[in-house]
Structure to design on (736 residues):
């Protein structure tokens, strides 16, 4: 049980990250990752909605006929999004002021519908809830990475509050901020670079895993080749 | 039309009939499960034409019949599918079930939302009102209460009070900016001139249009009168539309149909003048202790801190210390309240305080050690070197808590005055004793000035006054001293 939970978390955060790997929900990603606090707020809202909607959909998955499933999912998701929006407006007005329109837009965030369709509608409630949390954490993590870069280069500060004040001045007063990072163009640049890095890392990991898996068969091939190379290759395989 | 009769059979048989004509087109047309393909193929092939015609006829009949299929409206649409697909009758009859389930889900979700709304409604309204109040009080720093008076021309007008008097009014309005609406508020004071503009909400281009939110731009409107609310304010280059919107907003706020004075009369409330406000603050400061001044500095725009604690203490130190001479030691002001020593045992202690501390003046008749204990040590130390720089080297061992500033002050003055140390023999401790000896020379007239500004008794100490510039700074009271001070300093120079 614990293994599967860990596995789900690993998938949600690393191997199947909704932003870096699945490339879902790009619009709110680019718009709300201007500062780390904003990113955390948005990530928390999405995680809340994901968890609740996954749980609820999983509970009623046997009742909903498949013809109206998308419509039902949308109703359920928008209900939870509106509830989260009202709660944020009441208890975190600063976050509401800075995220503004993007909280109600969580309804059309593909991540939530994708997880509902792909996982919650086919699995029992508890794994669905875990999946919701894992995907939400992965989303928040990805958003924070982008926001870290954008805020650092775009304003020279880190962890500024939701209304723009405060924050740690990293580069000092003399830093001329690169304002492009606060605009959508900078968001794309940052996101592109990070996705490239993630792809590179995952390629290297995959290659290593493939090498490990292929090692015995490689040995066989080389032995079957016979001849001059067998000595070298034996040494090489030994080193592996 | 015998075919029709046949077609009343199950749809599978209809398919079989259609497949009979031996044309490739027909077969492919029928083989594809897409009704649209069938309809497209119809004009091409005559044989299929008949078949499809009959099939659609049959479909209508099937719809109309009381057979397996129920006569619901969706059937007409479903019938198209029936021409090529094997349709399960069950799914059509499920339509009411689908509707019911969807309705049930909607009802449950709506109930959930109703509950959440009921819980958060008040808090949200509170937050909105609080945000407005913060905006108003950040413009009217003297105000401590705001009330909505009326909505004129679609703009909310708030009256701003200080206790029972009016300080001004605030107009909330919305203008169209470049990237959307700009919610702003304009504060107008008793003289019907702008006293502050604040942007509450905007969605302008970051870095360009958002410049209109900066105090640099908004302060330009302060003080502009009712007749000319915009004056010479120029738009920010690169943000013409945003600046123009803000300017039009300020103009519109002045142009609303609202007569402040008439309204104040009608309500029976007095419009406070700046003098009135100062009076109120003074009466408040008498009752509130000065440490409140420290809480001022932390009041940020986002804090809903009431302004009562802000105002009285803010004005206090300024008023008190305005006329008192001070020495400026690299940015820090040390106010000099008085000094005077008349006898050896009857000593007045000079205390020099930093500008945000209250000053005290005490008459001490105790020994130096007890003096140290009873008075604030730092201030006492500061005054020692100013009085007697010559004593400084001897003072150090006797008076431990010497502040850094005083040591620097003393050190700078010690070299020139070392010559004088020899003249004053007392080394043991009380700098006051040397004061006495020094002051005796300056004459009795000065010794009477003990409560006011620096007395000329400090002329000996005035050599330290050189770096401290006692003679040049301070209020009018200090003017009497410069001559003596400069005289002694010239003495020092000659000795040095």
């Amino acid at each position: 049980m614990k293994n599967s939970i860990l596995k789900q978390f690993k998938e949600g955060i690393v191997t199947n990250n909704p932003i870096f790997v699945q490339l879902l929900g790009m619009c709110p990603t680019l718009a709300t990752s201007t500062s780390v606090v904003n990113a955390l707020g948005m990530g928390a809202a999405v995680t809340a909605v994901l968890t609740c909607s996954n749980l609820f959909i999983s509970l009623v998955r046997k009742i909903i006929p498949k013809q109206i499933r998308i419509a039902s999912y949308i109703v359920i998701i928008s209900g939870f999004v509106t509830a989260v929006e009202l709660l944020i407006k009441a208890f975190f007005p600063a976050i509401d002021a800075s995220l503004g329109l993007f909280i109600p837009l969580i309804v059309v965030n593909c991540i939530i519908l994708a997880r509902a369709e792909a996982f919650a509608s086919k699995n029992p409630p508890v794994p669905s809830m875990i999946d919701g949390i894992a995907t939400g954490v992965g989303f928040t993590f990805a958003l924070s990475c982008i926001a870290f870069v954008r805020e650092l280069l775009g304003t020279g500060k880190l962890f500024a509050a939701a209304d723009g004040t405060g924050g740690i001045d990293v580069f000092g007063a003399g830093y001329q901020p690169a304002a492009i990072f606060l605009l959508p163009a900078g968001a794309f640049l940052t996101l592109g670079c990070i996705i490239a890095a993630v792809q590179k890392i995952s390629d290297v990991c995959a290659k290593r895993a493939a090498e490990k898996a292929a090692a015995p068969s490689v040995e066989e091939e080389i032995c079957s080749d016979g001849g001059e190379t067998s000595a070298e290759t034996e040494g090489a395989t030994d080193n592996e | 039309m015998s075919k029709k009769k046949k077609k009343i059979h199950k749809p599978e048989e209809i398919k079989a009939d259609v497949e009979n004509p031996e044309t490739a087109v027909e077969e492919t047309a029928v083989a594809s499960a897409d009704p649209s393909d069938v309809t497209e193929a119809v004009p091409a092939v005559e044989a299929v034409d008949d078949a499809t015609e009959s099939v659609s006829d049959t479909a209508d009949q099937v719809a109309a019949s009381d057979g397996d299929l129920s006569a619901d409206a969706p059937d007409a649409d479903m019938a198209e599918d029936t021409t090529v697909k094997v349709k399960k009758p069950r799914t059509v009859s499920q339509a009411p079930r689908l509707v019911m389930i969807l309705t049930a889900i909607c009802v449950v979700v709506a109930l959930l939302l109703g509950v959440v709304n009921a819980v958060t409604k008040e808090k949200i309204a509170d937050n909105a009102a609080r945000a407005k109040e913060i905006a108003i009080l950040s413009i009217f720093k003297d105000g401590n209460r705001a009330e909505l008076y009326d909505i004129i021309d679609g703009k909310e007008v708030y009256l701003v009070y200080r206790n029972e008097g009016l300080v001004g009014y605030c107009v909330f309005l919305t203008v169209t900016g470049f990237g959307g609406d700009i919610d702003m508020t304009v504060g107008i004071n008793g003289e019907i001139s702008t006293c502050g503009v604040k942007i509450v909400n905007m969605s302008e281009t970051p870095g360009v249009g958002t410049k209109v939110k900066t105090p640099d731009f908004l302060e330009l409107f302060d003080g502009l009168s009712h007749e000319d609310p915009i004056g010479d304010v120029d738009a920010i280059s690169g943000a013409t539309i945003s600046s123009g919107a803000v300017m039009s907003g300020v103009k519109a706020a002045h142009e609303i149909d609202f007569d402040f004075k008439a309204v104040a009369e009608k309500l029976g409330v007095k419009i406070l003048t700046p003098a009135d406000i100062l009076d109120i603050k003074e009466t408040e400061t008498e009752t509130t202790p000065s440490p409140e001044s420290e809480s001022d500095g932390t009041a940020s725009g986002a804090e809903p801190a009431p302004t009562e604690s802000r105002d009285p203490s803010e004005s206090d130190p300024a008023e008190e210390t305005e006329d008192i001479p001070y020495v400026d030691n690299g940015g820090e002001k040390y106010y000099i309240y008085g000094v005077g020593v008349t006898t050896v045992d009857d000593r007045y202690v000079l205390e020099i305080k930093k500008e945000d501390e209250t000053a005290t003046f005490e008459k001490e008749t105790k020994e130096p050690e007890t003096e140290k204990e009873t008075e604030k040590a730092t201030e006492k130390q500061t005054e020692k070197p100013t009085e007697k720089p010559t004593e400084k080297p001897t003072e150090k061992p006797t008076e431990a808590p010497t502040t850094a500033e005083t040591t620097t002050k003393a050190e700078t003055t010690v070299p020139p005055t070392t010559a004088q140390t020899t003249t004053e023999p007392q080394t043991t401790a009380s700098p006051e004793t040397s004061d006495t000896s020094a002051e005796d020379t300056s004459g009795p007239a000065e010794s009477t000035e003990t409560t006011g500004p620096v007395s000329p008794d400090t002329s000996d100490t005035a050599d330290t006054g050189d770096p401290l510039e006692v003679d040049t700074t301070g209020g009018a009271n200090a003017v009497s001293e410069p001559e003596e001070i400069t005289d002694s300093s010239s003495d020092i120079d000659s000795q040095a």
User: Anything to note?
Assistant: Confidence is low (pLDDT under 50) at residues 229-238 of chain A. Residues 198-239 of chain A form one domain. The first strand of chain A starts at residue 157 and ends at 158. The radius of gyration of chain A is 23 Å.
